[in-house]
Write a structure and sequence with these properties.
Layout (H helix, E strand, L loop, with lengths): L2 E4 L6 H12 L7 E5 L9 H9 L9 E3 L2 H9 L9 H18 L2 H8 L4 E4 L2 E4 L16 H11 L3 E4 L5 E6 L5 E2 L2 E2 L2 E2 L3 E2 L5 E6 L8 E8 L4 E8 L9
């Protein structure tokens, strides 16, 4: 068993094809493919990427896809979320970014993305774009250990795979003594031991964000080994921001 986990295609169809080709060349066959959001963005051809995700070639794995930050911006632009007019997108990329995303993703594609999952809980792993807190929750190697531990406990997972930062990293958290309490209308409940088992957060990198380079991870659930992969890709200089 071997999983391929990626994020951040961001409309870069050439980079996604390069990753698929690299997956096919692995000595241990990939059995599951996870895409942790940001399939669209301000680079490349968003509709081409969406068609490719929907259309499998003979023998290809069906990608299991969850919603990312860019998908949420599309929902906001189309009035399908609680934040109309994509204020986050406007703040970061301005009017040109808003216009480009509106024009490059059809409403039909937006509704397809709306049907995607928030994340996946498989075995003792959570696979999600940000964290259980939010799609925009950006975990990095510099995130405080206590915050990483909080996200892992919320996820009820020993390994949290995420893609929001676009970085490839592996951070282990080894709590020596950790307790949690729950406060209800009846008062504070008895503290619960969260155990001392080491847990980790894994950033899966980005397929389409860095020109000429795509990164993703391979994970073997039987051995618990994470392998970071980098693929040289073709790229276009056409983008906004």
């Amino acid at each position: 068993m071997q999983w391929a986990i990626l994020s951040g295609i961001e409309g870069n169809i050439a980079a996604y094809e390069a990753v698929l080709q690299d997956m096919r060349q692995q000595r241990s066959p990939v059995t599951d493919l996870y895409v942790l959001g940001d399939v669209v963005g301000l680079k490349g051809d968003n509709e081409a990427v969406i068609r490719r995700l929907q259309t499998l070639l003979p023998g290809e794995l069906e990608p299991q896809i969850c919603i990312g930050w860019w998908e949420e911006q599309c929902f906001s632009l189309h009035g399908l979320s609680g934040l109309p007019d994509a204020p986050e997108l406007m703040d970061q990329f301005g009017g040109d970014g808003v216009k480009h995303l509106w024009e490059s993703v059809s409403r039909k594609s937006v509704h397809w993305m709306r049907s995607l999952h928030f994340g996946f809980h498989e075995l003792d792993c959570l696979l999600v774009h940000g964290s259980t807190v939010s799609y925009a929750d950006e975990l990095t190697p510099d995130t405080p250990a206590l915050q990483l531990c909080d996200r892992l406990i919320r996820a009820d997972a020993n390994t949290l795979f995420c893609g929001r930062s676009g970085l490839a990293f592996e951070c282990w958290v080894e709590p020596h003594q950790l307790r949690s309490t729950v406060t209800t209308l009846d008062g504070i409940q008895e503290p619960q031991e969260q155990g001392k088992t080491p847990r980790r957060v894994v950033g899966v990198g980005s397929v389409g964000r860095t020109p000429g380079e795509a990164s993703y991870v391979l994970y073997n659930p039987n051995t618990n080994v994470v392998t970071f992969k980098t693929v040289v890709t073709q790229h276009s200089d056409s983008h906004i921001g």
